Every structure is written in structure tokens, then in C-alpha cells.
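Thread: Modeling a multi-component assembly for a lab meeting

Hi all, long-time lurker, first post. My supervisor asked me to bring a structural picture of a complex we are working on to next week's group meeting, and I have zero experience with this. I have the sequence lines for every component (913 residues in total). Could someone generate the structure of the whole assembly? Inputs are pasted exactly as I received them:
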Amino acid sequence: MSALSASPANTAVAGAKAPVVVESSPAQYLTFLLGGEMFAVGILNIKEIIEYGAVTEIPMVPPFIRGVINLRGAVVPVIDLASRFGGKRSEISRRTCIVIIELTENDERQDIGVVVDAVSEVLEIPVSEIEPPPSFGARIRADFIKGMGKVNGKFVILLEVDKVLSVDEISSLSRIATEGVDTVTGGTPAA
Amino acid sequence: MDELKQVFLQESNEQLDALETLLLELENRPDDETTLNGIFRAAHTIKGAAGMVECAAVESFAHVVENVLDRLRNHEIAVTTKLAALMLGCTDHLRVLVANEAGVAQVTIEWIEGQSARLLTELGEYGPGGQVFATPKASESGVERIPSNRSGHNCWHISVRFGPDVLRQGMDPENFLRFLETLGNIQHMETLADVMPPAAEMDPELCYLGFEISLESSVDKQAIEDIFAFVRDECRLSILPPNSKVADYIELIESLPEDSLRLGEILVRVGALTADELAEGLRSQAVPAGAEPPETLQIGEILVAQQVVQPELVAAAVAKQAQVSEKKAQDAKLIRVPADKLDHLINLVGELVIAGAATSLLAHTRRDGELIESSSLLTRLVEEIRDASLQLRTVQIGETFNRFHRLVRDACKDLGKEVELVIGGGETELDKSIVEKIGDPLMHLVRNSLDHGIESPAVREAAGKDPRGTLTLNACHDAGNIVIEVADDGAGLNRDKILAKAIERGLVEPEAHLSDREVFDLIFAPGLSTADQVTNLSGRGVGMDVVRRNLQALRGTITVDSSAGHGTRLTLRLPLTLAIIDGFLVVSGNRSYVIPLDAVVECIERPASEHNRNYFNLRGQVLPSVCLRESFGLPGERPARESVVVVQYAGQRAGIVVDRLAGELQAVIKPLGAIFRHIQGIGGSTILGSGEVALILDISALIKISGQAEQRLIARPELRNA
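Re: Modeling a multi-component assembly
Sure thing. I ran the full set together rather than chain by chain. Output:
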């Protein structure tokens, strides 16, 4: 085991060998591009990666909810990560993908799709190569970051998926968006 | 054994439900024999079944209850309100005991035992206990004839002829008789000495005596026979159960599980016959069978001839046999299916509907006549399968309603009110999963009505109303929904009080002007209770918001109507099913939406002259309408010709303006998931034949939010151009 993780981080090889290395701590990450920045999520949460297409928009929700897709008969919500991080929505290109992530929150399993600009590769990042998140400067909420992984001398932001895709938080945000309508709360106009 | 217990638990709960219903009935008609017998039968069945699966706790408690019921039935004691209440308490306790046996009781063993002890003491007042011991023990005076001081119909008849060798074997008949006394009272005994030879020929070592004994005892036949176990081979013994016991046996026979048993086995099973007696009977049946085949006696006839059972019992057992074989035939028509298998089936049917839609779409795009024809046949069949499989899950709501009889009765006793529960539309069918989830909210509403709604008889009389209040539970179908009404003729909601409370709690601004309906809607706000006192039943202000939340989880709504002094009506609307609906597909801004077909009244073209207004002239009536494009902020230009779908909801009509109509479809409802739980105006989603996800509109919410959006624009015009 130690021999393997100490081997030079030739990424292509590491990716190919991925299924062999089964460790209790998720040392393998899927990296992807979002607005020119490199992000990564642990592969254990990832169900599949599909091509972007046929997203049905949902009216009256915050812009970072792109809509829903039909994933082999199940309706799965799709989140625009760039917008969730406070930026603009991702431009859809030929390489745009939806990464389907399985979450467990409050004992309920929920699949959520996230839109990314391009999927790169599966990397193995040893724990020793992960730095704690910076208190500021990453331009996304600190609690969204699990750590900063070092890959080939560059930093990759490892995302805290449970926080980024927190069902509770997203649903309350969409409630605020819809309930400009509510007379009791009043106030927030639904544009 | 476990399976047997499962059946026992289920059946005893059914019996307990029956028992409860009958007890409530008995309260109203204390002299009704049929009801009384029904009650007795239910209690007896529970006891018998408990005995069979060796649930001693249930059995022994049921036994005491049964004793009291027996006395009731024999008119030894009268039906009183107190007794009825006690009996209901006992029913509850039996339920707890049964639940405990199943390991699902939510109380401690100590509590159960305490409760048992308390109820048993109370039952003791009515039980036969005291009286039995009070009757004089008459048998001690001697072995000669003892006059019976009772009618004897409660006595076992034991007839024993000791064999001549009994004394030689060291057994004294007197000992058996004394031992018999330990089981109960010997009411009457006759010594038969007719085989006694003249004194000269008499052998003092031989026994010539026979006895006819009337024994009052509550033990079973086997116990009596066991007394004579040592001399069983040496004597002729026949034990006839008491007449009252015969009825018990007959009932027990009727309540036996539906196994196919032989006649003898049935009798042994209920204890009317012991195994030894049966064996003997069968032996004597075998002998004549060899000799004179045509005149073979039926085992029943033999047993009667041998005086071991009464003819009535045999008749009952024979009837039971016939019933069993009949029931067998019926069983084939009724199958118990685990709910998850049904759910799986419904899911598969859902997928089938979607796949079928895809096929028929393909056929239409290919313009292949034969394929279109065969796919339309397929579609029709799929529709039938869908309806049939959804039918499997529907149940009538009446059963849920009937449970409230007890609640109303108990609450009335507690509150000192008189309320009549009127139930209507009990035959209305709805999905079982909805029925299960609606019980609690309904209970809250009924309790509220009883506690806050209906006034005490004195107040009612002072107001010139019938002192007896009426609570109505009603159910019906309306536009693809189930409508359930809980209405009372009580005092109605106090508008000012609710408003004052709401202002006090900061739920509304003091200067706000609210319509009656808006004020009444405040009762669903968390923490708001208009009751001055917190009672056992309600008043803590936690009920109504929970009710509303539960209903919303079922895609249902609740509305309140109330008029001061005349009562309150709560109307619950629930979807018919949670799985598949008939929908009407519309397209707006290139997006597909589904309107539940049951809500659609008609479709019209939007008159060009009324392009900029959100209301139309529909055959002389004003039709307010919602433009989907505006409400949902859809991109693109409005087409030159638009269509209006006229929908009806809760008696209200409205138009929905869409780009174009795309026809009917079957929509398999796919929940949107937790992320969208707060979304308004969208009821769910479905997958079209093309694979595209279409949103299902929630018409009432859509109309509501459009109305509110308009109100806001009027109040704050600066938003209009935002």
C-alpha cells in the first residue's frame, strides 16, 4: 500500500490503477474545471458523469438551480456550481458535463447533478499532500472547502460536497426566492 | 408458531375493533340481545385465540372480562354507563396486552401490570366470584340425595360407574368425589346402587356404585376427566358440559381458525370432548363398520349415543366443517399482499406508461399506420392496467371515520358535552397510503371541534340550539381530489379573538386589514391557540400547524369556513393518488407543463381583443386568468394566437393562458425531491414520451400566488418595471 501511494504521481497511471487501491479514507478525487479553476470531489460520492443536455427549468427558484433532468426515469435536480459559488452561470459548451453526486442527508438519499465546465481526471491525493483551507482568498465560502490538494505543484480545491449541496440550505434559499410572495414574511420582491 | 401469532395479533385487533363498536352500540341500546351476544362472542374469540397461541396474559384477562359479560348476558347484572365505560377500558387494556405480546407496546410492563390490577379489581365488583363462594357447600352433608338449589343449567353433568375392581386396586371412589369438590361445587349427586346384588351375594371387595353428579365449576372438561385418570380404564365415565357451556362451545367452534378439521378434532379442540373419549368413540365406530357396512354410524352420532357430547355441539361442529369448506372457496378470491409488492407493481406500471408514451410518439413521427394502430391498442391496455393496479391500493375511508365514534364518545364524557357524530360518504375510496397518513390530522380536527367548537349543553340551550351538538364527517370526490369535511354546529371561530392573539404573538401587524378567510387561516400558524385553557384534548396550539404540514406533505390543502354561532367547517382536499394522474399537456415558451385533467373544464382561444388583460369574457362571465409566461418569467415572445385552459378548483374558475395545447397524457408523478419542497405552483414532475421532464402545475397554488403577486404590484407599483 505504501509503495503505491509513494509512487510518482504520474496521473494517467494513477487513474488507471484507481480500482485496485481501496482505502478507507477517500484518497481518490475527480478533478474538474469550473471558470478556469481546478476543483476536486471525492470519488466515493460520485455516481456517474453525463453529457449536459435536456435540462427542464423550474420557475421561481434561485438562479443556481438550473432545473431537473431525466436520469433513466428518475427526476434529478441540477445545480450550477459556478453560480452556487456566487459567480455567473456556466456557459454551456461542448465539454460541459453533469456530475451526478449521491448525498445522504437526514437519512435520505438524494441524487444531485452539478454542472461543470469540463471533467479532467481521477487523481490520487495522499493525505500528506492536503493543506487546510485558507481562511479567505479562495473566493468561495470557506465551509465549502474541505482542503487544498497539491497536485504537480498546483493547488486544487477539494470541495466539501455535503455543504455545497446541502439540501436544507438549497431548499431554504429557493423558499426565499419563491416567498417574496408570502404576505406574512413580506419584503423580498420576486423579480 | 410465529406466523400463527401474527395471525392472532391481526385477528385480535379486528375483534377488539368489533368489540369496541359493539360496546358503544350497547350504551345506546342496553337491552339489545344481539349486540350483547356479539360482544360476548368477540371477547370469547379473543380469549380462545389467545389460548391457542399461548398468550397467557391476554387469555386470563379476557377470561375475567368474559365472566362479567356472561353475567350480563344472563341478566344477572344490568348494563350501566359505568360498566360500559369499564368494559371500554378493558378493551383498551386488551389492546395494550396484545400489542405487548407483539412487542410493539409503548408502555412499560409495570404500567401494564398496574393497569391490569386496577381493572381486575373493578371487574371483581361485577364478577361471579363473591357469589359463588357465598353459596353453601352442600355436598358435605353426605352422599345421599342433595336437593339442588339451583336450576342446574350451569352445572357439568358427570356420570360415573366405577368398575368392580376399583377397591381391589386400592382406590376409594369417595376420594375421587372429594377431589372433584376441589374443582367446584357439587350441586347435586345421586348414588346409583341398582347393580348392588343382594347382601348375601355381595363381595365387600367389589365396588358396585355409580354416581350422577352435577358439578358447578369453571374448569374445562379435560380437568374433570383428569380427576378420574387413575380409574379411567376401570370405570365408565361420561362428562356432559353444562348447558350454558354448550353455547360457549358452539361459539368457540365458530371462532376456530379456518383449518379443515375432522369432526372429532373440532370437538376436542374446543374442549367439548377429550382425546380419550374421541379414541373410544372411534373404536366403537370401527367395530360396527366391519360387521354391517351399510349402517355405519357417523362419529357424531356415536359420541352423542355415548353421552359424551350434546347433540347441539355436534350440530355446531358439523356446521363449522361446512363453513370451513365454504370459506376455503372464498379464500381463493381474497389474497393478502404485502404493500411493498404493490408499490413495486405501481412503479413498474409507471415505467410502462412512460415507455408506452415513447413508443406511440415514435409511431406518430414515423407515420407508420400499422405501428400507430398497434401502439394505440397498447396504450389503451396500459391505461387499463394502470387503472386496475391503482385500484388495488384504494380503500374506503369509512373505516377511518368509524374509529372516531369512540373518540367522540370519550371526549363527550370528559367534557360533559353531548355530541352526535354523523358520517357521510364512507364508501369514498382513496389511496391506502393517504388513508394511513390522514388519520392523525383528522383526529386533531375532530378533537378541536369537540373541545373548542361545540359548546356545553347549557350554553347551547341558552343560544336556542339543540343541546346535543352535531359533528359531521363527510367525504366525496371532486375534480380529481378527495374532499373531506369536518364540520360542527358549534360556536364558530371567534374572529376578534384570533386576530387579537395573532397580533399579541406578532404574527400580523396591528393595523393590518384582513379578510375573514385570512383571519381564519391564522389558526394554522404555529403556537396560536384561542383556547383560554389547555385541556386534555387540545389548546396547546401545536395541533393545527402540524395538521396543515401533514396535509401539505400529501399535496393536500385545508380551508376553514366559519360563521359565529353556527359552526365551523374544515375542508381538506387531497389528491386521489400519489402515483399516476391523467394530465393535459400544454406548451408555453417551448416548455411543457401538465395540468391535472380533472381540473380542466374547457379550452378556448384567447380573444385577440383582450390581449393585454388578465381576465376574459367567458360567455358573459368574468374569467380571471393567469398567464403562464408572465408568472413563470419564461423567455421568448408571446405568439400571435394563444390558448386559454379554463380550470376549476374548489368551486372557483380561472383561465390559464398558454402558447399552445398538446393534448391529454398519462402523467406518472415523479416527486421533485427535498430541494424543491418549498416551491409553489408546481405539484411535481413527470417524464414525457420524448424523455423530457415536464412540470405538473399545482393549479390552486398557482392561482393563489398570481393573485398575491398582483396585490403586491398594486401596493408597490415601483416593482412593475423591476
